[in-house]
Amino acid sequence: MLFKNCWMLLLAIALVTVGTNCNSTKMATDLSGQDAKWFKSMGWLNGLQILPHESVNQQEFYRQYHLNKLWWDEAFEFLKTHDLNTIADGKYMIDSGNVFATVSTLDPNSKEKTNWEAHKDFNDLQYIISGKAMMGVASTESPNSIVSVPYDAKKDVANFTVTGEKYYDAVPGKFYIFSPHEIHRPGFKVAGYNEVKKIVIKVRVPK
């Protein structure tokens, strides 16, 4: 009986530990209290009707936004004040050296030909204007994320091999934000969608 009771106690402790770890993982990206109310109010979008995807790391976005509100406001204002359906492909300087957009219409690469990448100097805001693609998301802090090509400061990119990743549909109406903490496999091909129009806005990470 004593052995059975001890075993049950150990099992209960293990279950509590697992539950705590799961909550910790969730809280690593989600805000709480007044910060969560700020995020959910969407007032920071300044009237932009496109919404953030549920995969956005709320804590990191909150930190980046408040480090330099102006740059993010400029990015959202660009999205709000341009007709994205008719905007021409090309590069658009929004705030010299700090915020710029690239619009492209293309046949996306396959999943296998799309590398996992992460940046240090810039956040990525990525939005599919028309068509459909897939986005892969992982954390640079995950033990399942291994550097395959070291960081290149000139290109502001490092490449990774990743296991245990998550994939999401990327469609009009929801934008993604990838901070330097997020590895992403951006905009790879979905069967049946041979043309995708997308915009990527780079927002500098303040030093």
Quickly describe the structure.
This protein is α+β, with helices and mostly antiparallel strands and 207 residues long. Helix content is 28%, strand content 37%. It has helices spanning 2-27, 33-41, 58-67, 69-81; strands spanning 51-52, 90-95, 99-106, 116-118, 122-130, 133-139, 145-152, 157-162, 166-170, 174-178, 182-189, 196-204.
Major β-sheet profile: 6 strands, mixed
| Biggest sheet strand line-up | 1-10-5-12-3-2
Order of helices and strands: HHEHHEEEEEEEEEEE
Helix content: 25-40%
What labels describe this entry?
globular; three-stranded antiparallel β-sheet; alpha+beta; 207 residues
Describe the fold and architecture.
By secondary structure, the protein is of the alpha+beta class. Helix content is 28%, strand content 37%. The chain has 4 helices and 12 strands, in the order ααβααβββββββββββ. It has helices at residues 2-27, 33-41, 58-67, 69-81; strands at 51-52, 90-95, 99-106, 116-118, 122-130, 133-139, 145-152, 157-162, 166-170, 174-178, 182-189, 196-204. It is globular, with a radius of gyration of 20 Å. The N and C termini lie far apart (61 Å).
